[in-house]
Amino acid sequence: MRESPIYDITPFTMLDYPDSLAAIAWFAGCNMRCGYCYNPHIVLGEGRIATEKLLEFLRKRKDKLEAVVLSGGECTNFAAIGELCAEIKKIGYKVKIDTNGSRPERLSALIAAKAIDYVALDFKAPREKFREIAGADFYDQTLQSLRLLIASEIPFEARTTIHSALLTPADISRIAEVLCSEGYKNNYCLQNFVAAKKTLGNLGKPAEKFNLAAVSSPIKVVLR
Ligand code: SF4
Fold it and tell me: Is the CB of 104 under 6 A from ligand 1?
């Protein structure tokens, strides 16, 4: 693994891995183009940190951290992600991936190899709005990733970023319905749009607040 797929490393977070102190590796590049993305520099940028550097950093921090989050960008775009997860687990860390669900074949390999311990799966939009929201139509792949995770024993969460100009309560209700009909039993997590200085689609703060009370869902919806 001589490549440098990582854009940056956050050395410490208490927020990104449930109940564990973690570091985050931000992978450069993404195969989606969500207008609300607040990491355009990572999505459009080049990787500059080698995987060996990340492993070196993790070996040094072993007594301070418990977990590693592979985020981005889209970490499953990195072809050697399975090898990397295996190396991270060898050091003794739990591994979480944040994924947009577009590469079910890589996710499947990670699950089969027991290379990951937790997954946050973005469910960007209902089918008819997927391309508009994500800039690419990966709805079927997202659904396939959801099914793989439901069939696995790996703890995971499905989540959607909300911006009232993009997704309506009816859209969220439709996603919740799909999640439920596929057998998803965990909380459905909604994340408010982060009004960053620069987003991929130059989206500003929504004019109206998202009306959470209008969401009708057969599963529990939590707002973060
Ligand atoms: S928000 Fe969209 S564009 Fe940004 S990293 Fe996630 S999937 Fe890629």
Answer: no
- What one-letter code names the amino acid at 170? A
Model confidence pLDDT, tens digit, residues 37-92: 999 999 999 999 999 999 999 999 999 999 999 999 999 999 999 999 999 999 99
Do residues 214 and 172 touch, judged by C-beta distance below 8 A? no
Domains detected in the chain: 6-223 (3.20.20.70)
DSSP string, 96-145: EEEE-S--HHHHHHHHHTT--SEEEEE----GGGHHHHHSS--HHHHHHH
**CA pair distance 140, 94, nearest whole angstrom:** 29
Quote the ligand 1 centre to 74 CA distance (angstroms). Answer: 7
Atom 6 of ligand 1 has which residue's CA nearest to it? 73
**Residue 37 in contact with ligand 1 by CB distance below 6 A:** yes
Spatial separation of the C-alpha atoms in residues 174 and 169, rounded to whole Å: 9
